[in-house]
């Protein structure tokens, strides 16, 4: 019997392994999952270099939002070690000036000791409007953000703001690639995922209906099913 494929999953901003709880549980029969530590470094290159020190020689790679930004850094540092890619609710573009201003405003709040006010402010951007009344989901997202904490949030924002434009990397990707996006993702709108899928030869774009930015938590069954298919394809 063939051994399971190693799978590295990279969380997004203010996220940890809880972002991938459903996938970790229900893909464990076909994948050996490791969640990448994104809490210690203030650059994407640092996060990736740390992960590669203990990563298997070859692995599948998935990431959501900031995790997708980090995936491009994996492609820079270790392209030959990547078996396949799954980009969730992310973008290949650098931040716009307007988005950078928003991030700096949030950084200022955190540095002024107002970190606890950031998660409620971001929830409407992270979740589909209809899911805002789902107390179990909203509490899980808030608890995850609290566990990440102020200092890691500051490091993550700095890493995100410094990322380059990754559009030039798309044509060089030659591994099986899945691009997933929530139809109502406000943080990284669907057109950004469509742009990525169009730029990667053979990529599959899968749209999750009635879903916002945190697809792996909002619609876990759909995302896990899509990722299972991706992992099992030759």
What does it look like?
By secondary structure, this protein is of the alpha/beta class. Helix content is 46%, strand content 15%. Helix 4 packs across helix 6. The radius of gyration is 16 Å and the shape is globular. The model has no long low-confidence stretch (mean pLDDT 95).
* Assigned CATH superfamily: Alpha/Beta hydrolase fold, catalytic domain
Please state the CA-atom Rg, rounded to the nearest Å.
16 Å
Q: Structural class, please? A: alpha/beta
Level-1 CATH class name:
Alpha Beta
CATH architecture identity = 3-Layer(aba) Sandwich
Number of domains: 1
Low-confidence parts, pLDDT < 50 over ≥5 residues?
none
Which key features would you list for this structure?
Rossmann fold; 6-stranded parallel β-sheet
What's the layout of helices and strands?
Blueprint: E1 5-10, H1 21-26, E2 31-35, H2 44-54, E3 59-64, H3 66-77, E4 82-88, H4 97-111, H5 118-126, H6 135-161, E5 177-182, H7 190-199, E6 204-208, H8 215-218, H9 220-232
Parallel strand pairs: 1-2, 1-3, 3-4, 4-5, 5-6
Helix pairs in contact: 2-3, 4-6
């Amino acid at each position: 019997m063939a051994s399971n494929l190693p799978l590295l999953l990279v969380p997004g901003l203010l996220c940890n392994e809880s972002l991938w709880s459903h996938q970790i549980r229900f893909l464990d029969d076909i994948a050996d999952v490791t969640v990448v530590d994104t809490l210690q470094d203030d650059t994407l290159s640092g996060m990736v270099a740390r992960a590669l020190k203990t990563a298997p020689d070859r692995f599948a790679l998935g990431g959501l939002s900031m995790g997708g930004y980090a995936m491009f850094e994996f492609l820079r540092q270790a392209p030959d070690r990547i078996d396949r890619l799954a980009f969730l609710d992310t973008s290949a573009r650098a931040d716009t000036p307007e988005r950078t201003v928003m991030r700096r405003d949030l950084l200022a709040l955190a540095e002024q000791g107002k970190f606890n006010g950031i998660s409620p402010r971001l929830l409407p951007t992270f979740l589909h409007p209809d899911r805002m009344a789902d107390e179990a989901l909203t509490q899980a997202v808030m608890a995850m953000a609290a566990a990440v904490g102020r200092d890691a949030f500051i490091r993550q924002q700095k890493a995100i703001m410094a990322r380059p434009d990754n559009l030039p990397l798309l044509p060089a990707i030659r591994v099986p690639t899945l691009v997933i996006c929530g139809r109502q993702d406000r943080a990284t709108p669907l057109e950004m995922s469509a742009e990525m899928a169009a730029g990667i030869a053979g990529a599959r774009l899968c749209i999750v209906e009635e879903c916002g930015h945190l697809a792996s938590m909002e619609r876990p069954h759909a995302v896990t099913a899509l990722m299972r298919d991706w992992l099992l394809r030759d």
